[in-house]
Amino acid sequence: MDARGTVRTQPLAGTRALVADPIESRRLREELLSDAKEIHEHAISVKLAVEEMAPVCRPGSVRVEEFMVVEERGTVQHLGSRVAGELADGLTCWDALAALFPAVTASGVPKRAAFDLIRRLEGHDRGLYAGAVLQIEPDGALDAALVLRTLFRRGDATWLQAGAGVVGASSPARELEETREKLASIADHVVRAREPGRAAHASASVDAGASAGEPGVSARAPRGAAAGR
Q1: What pLDDT score was predicted for residue 165?
Q2: Taking the domains of the chain in order of start, what are their residue ranges?
Q3: Minimal CA–CA distance to 184: which of 199, 169, 162, 168?
Q4: What is the DSSP letter of 54?
Q5: Distance CA 12, CA 103 (A)
Q6: Taking every annotated instance into account, which residue ranges of this chain make up the domain Chorismate-utilising enzyme C-terminal (predicted)?
Q7: For residue 140, is it left (φ>0), alpha (ψ between -120 and 50) or beta?
Q8: Angle CA(14)–CA(63)–CA(66) in degrees, nearest 5?
Q9: Active-site residues: which are they?
Q10: Which of 52, 95, 155, 215 is 20 to 30 Å from 32 by CA-CA measure?
């Protein structure tokens, strides 16, 4: 939310890889823009953003400023939209945050049922994953960035965290591939542990949902640690 009271949220849902070859990246971009499953997933997230903002914004002020454009983020490209509205009188940025958080793209719909399902199936707290980093200004402005593609360390264990949104038309193989594409954006920040007689490497290759096969590096969260979809 800015200092004038305009609330904005940017749903990002629908993903393809962003690769070194510009021709292939362009092909994947066109595929993303025409894929019925990705469009459906994105439309759900935009619809819910509008519905969540309506109770905390002035009547008639909620609008979709930008719809289904391609946004590049590291090693992937997403379908992105911008939804905005004017904060209702008597409310603050915290009311706006409470209305929109947790993000639908990290939970699911309907939210309450999704929370219960996540709690039952995952069996442990997500910790910082799917939380937010906040920047708060003296003039009342607030910016919240989701904590999604992340690297965690606890004791001797280091692991990467990423996920993919699953809908009825999802392909398990494609969702796994998407998770790997997202993990690639942070994998190069993992430094392999130095062992006697071995040089440390600058990066480690990871496979979503499986051990990276190197000391101190894992792509799977230890039980009791943050875990996402």
Answers
A1: 86
A2: 6-146, 150-218
A3: 162
A4: G
A5: 10
A6: 5-182
A7: left
A8: 40
A9: 78, 105, 129, 149, 165
A10: 52
Tokens of 222: 């230890």
| Residue 167, pLDDT above cutoff 90 | no
- The confidence band for 194, taking pLDDT boundaries of 50, 70 and 90, is low
CB within 8 A of 175, min separation 6: which ones?
164, 166
Strand, coil or helix: what is 26? helix
What confidence score (pLDDT) does residue 127 get? 84
Per-residue pLDDT at 159:
87
| Better-predicted residue by pLDDT, 209 or 170 | 170
Angstrom distances, CA of residue 140 to CA of 1, 53, 91, 137, 144: 8, 18, 11, 6, 13
pLDDT confidence band for 106 (50 / 70 / 90)? confident
The pLDDT score that the predictor gives to residue 225 is: 35
What's the CATH architecture for 6-146? 4-Layer Sandwich (3.60)
pLDDT score recorded for residue 202? 38
Phi, psi of 184 (to 5 degrees): -60, -25
**Backbone φ/ψ region at 74: left (φ over 0), alpha (ψ -120 to 50), beta:** left
| H or E stretch covering 184 | helix 172-187
17-46: pLDDT as tens digits: 999 999 999 999 999 999 999 999 999 999
CA distance linking residue 173 with residue 110, whole number of Å: 25
Residue pair 145/10 in contact by the 8 Å Cβ criterion:
no
The radius of gyration computed from the CA coordinates of the chain, to the nearest angstrom, equals 19
Question: How far are the Cα atoms of 84, 94, 102, 133 from residue 136, in angstroms, in the given order?
Answer: 19, 11, 18, 10
